[in-house]
Fold this sequence. Notes:
The chain has helices at residues 19-31, 53-59, 93-100, 160-165, 171-202, 221-229, 262-270, 415-428, 463-467, 486-494, and strands spanning 233-240, 243-253, 257-260, 277-281, 287-296, 301-306, 315-316, 327-332, 340-354, 366-372, 384-387, 391-399, 410-414, 434-435, 438-440, 445-446, 451-458, 474-478, 481-482, 501-508, 511-518, 520-521. Helices cover 21% and strands 25% of the residues. With 522 residues, the protein is an alpha+beta fold. The protein starts with 18 loop residues before the first helix and ends with a strand.
Amino acid sequence: MTTESTNTGSQPEQPGESATDAVSNSAAERGNLRPPDAPVLGPRPVYRPDIDKHTARAFRRPNGQSGSFSTPPAGPAEQPRHDGPELVNRPPDAVLAEAFGRPEGSSELLQRDPDADTDTAPPAGPADPWRDPDTAARMGAPAITTQQDRPLPPASRLTAREVLFGKRVAPAALAILAVVALVIGVAGGLVGRLTGDTTAALTSRKVSLEQEGASDKPQGKVAQVADAVLPSVVQIRETVGDNGAIGSGVVIDGAGYIVTNNHVISMVALDKSGKGKIQAIFNDGTKAAAQIVGRDPKTDLAVLKVDVKNLTVARMGKSSDVRVGDDVLAIGSPLGLTKTVTSGIVSALNRPMQEPSEPGDDTAGAFDAVQTDAAINHGNSGGALVDGEGRLVGLNTAIRSESGGSVGLGFAIPVDLVQRIAQTLIRDGSVHHATLGVSARTKGVENDAMSGAQVADVQADSSASKAGIAEGDVIVKVGDRDITNTEELTVAVQSRRIGETVDVQLVRDGRQVTFPVTLQSD
C-alpha cells in the first residue's frame, strides 16, 4: 500500500521547541489548521468512578503486596519425571491402571474375538473380523455384563392389595369397598329384573302378524285405465351442455310420433350450437333419441319422432264428449318421477289461458284449457289427461299456484286442438294461425258499463289497421264470443281460420262500433 507523505522535507528543531510543536507548527503553516489566535484547550480530565468498599475489598491487592504481581517463591526447580513434553494434571499411574487395565484374573487380549482359538494361528481359528477385512461382521458376547443379564433374586409374590393399591389401602377399608360393590351389584340386578318384567308385560314372542292375499280382488277402474295408458306415456329429457329439463310426452302414432309441449323441448330447439339432445324414456325403461318434427309456440305444442317399433299408442277422445265433473287421470313424470298417476275431475271447460313468456323460451301458448283438480306438477308438462275410459282428452300443460306446487288448479290443452296441430306438424312441419294485428294491454278494461281488451298498438298493414281499428279502442266481442280480457282476445282470434271474415265489436269514445275484419296469417 502506498501512502502520501505530508512532509516536504525535514526541518531542524529550533532551540526551545519540542518535536511536537515543530510538527504542529509545520502543519499549521501548510494547511492553516489552526489560526494563531485560536484558544488552546486544556487536557481532558480523567474520570475515576467511585468504588465502594465491598468491591475494593474483593479486588484489592493481597496484604503485603505492593507491586502488580508477586514473585515466585525461592527454591530448587522441580525436575520433570519423564522425557518429552511435560504433562499437565497427569493422573496417578494407579488410577490409569485401574481404569484401562485388564480385569483381575482375565487373560483376554484386547480386540480379540472371544470365540477365537488362541492356541492356533489366525487362519486355523474362527474368522476374525478385526484381522481379516473380508470377514463378515458378527456379534460377540458383551464386554460388560449388565443388570438385565443377571438373574433376578428370589422375591415373594405380590398380593392383590399391593398390586391394586400399593399397600395404601388398609385391609378393613378394602373389605368395606368389597361390601359396597356387592350391594351395588345386587341393587343393579334387582332393577334389571324389575325392568325386564315390565318390558315382558308389553312384549310377547307368541304374537304372529298375518297378512291376507287378494288374488281374486277385482281390478278397480282407475287401475285398469292406468295399466292401459301408462305404456303410451313417456318421459322426455332435453340437455344442452350442462343444462337440462324433464317433461312428459304421449305416443300418438305407431310410426314413432310423440306429442308434447313446446316449452319441454324449446331449449334444444333454440340452441344454435348443435349440442342439444332429446331423449324419450318409455314405460319399460327403453331409451331412444328423439328428433323434433315441428313445433308451435303459439299453442305450446310440439311433435317428436323416435325410431322404436311396437309402440303402444294412446287413444284420442273428443273435446265435445268431455263434461265438467268427469273423472280424469293425469299421467306423467312430475319432478322426474316416472309413471306417476294422479286422479281428479274436470273442474271447468274452455278456460282461456295464455302462458307468459320466459327467458330462453319462445312459448306464448294461448288456448281454451280443460281445468282439472288432478295433481299436476313440474315434469307433468306434455303428459296425458285421460278420461275414465282411458281416452286422451287433454295434454297437461300448466298450473296456477302461489307456492309453485299443485293446489288443484291444473290446465290441459284440449284434445281437439292437440289433434289438429299435431296433424299439421306431422304433415307440414309448421303451423300458421290467424292474427288480428293488434297488441292489447296486459289488464283488460272493466267498469259498470262494459269489460274488454283495450288496444295498445296496431301493426301497419295488418287486418286491424285495414279494418279501421285504432289505438285506444276497447274490443268487447269477436264474432259471437264476448271478450273480457287479453287472454280471451288472443284465444278468440287464434281459434279462427286464416282468411275468415269476422265481426269485431268495440267501444270507441263511449260508442259501440262493429268492424268486419278479414283475418290474415301470422
